[in-house]
Amino acid sequence: MSIVVRIPTPLRGLTSDQDVVDGAGASLGELVADLEARYPGMAERLIDEGGELRRFVNVFINGEDVRFLDGMATVIGDGDEVSIVPAVAGG
Fold first, then answer.
1. Beta pairing, strands 81-86 & 3-6
2. Residue 91, domain member (yes or no)
3. Exposure class string for 17-44: b at 16+ Cβ within 10 A, else e
4. What three-state secondary structure class fits 52?
5. Considering the domain boundaries, does residue 10 fall inside one?
6. Domain total for the chain?
7. Is the pTM of this model over 0.90?
8. pLDDT for 28-87, tens place per residue?
9. Residues contacting 74, CB < 8 A, separation 6+
């Protein structure tokens, strides 16, 4: 199974400056665990102590915001594209 994961600039230090990496897992939670195993430090930047996505991190699977799907339990399939997008604040 191969999932395309788009990495935002602030997290590329963990991926040796790669903007796209491959991932594996049947759910977003499994994908984050896979990314953490290969890129230590990734999970703490994406999920909070309660195991949910941090407020300032948005994740999209094939363009759909996981907050409106099943959050960390959202199912991911082979060939899906996951985009990690830091929230932008300001005015």
1. parallel
2. no
3. eeeebebbbebbbbbbbbbbeebeebbe
4. coil
5. yes
6. 1
7. yes
8. 999 999 999 999 999 999 999 999 999 999 999 999 999 999 999 999 999 999 999 988
9. 27, 28, 61, 66
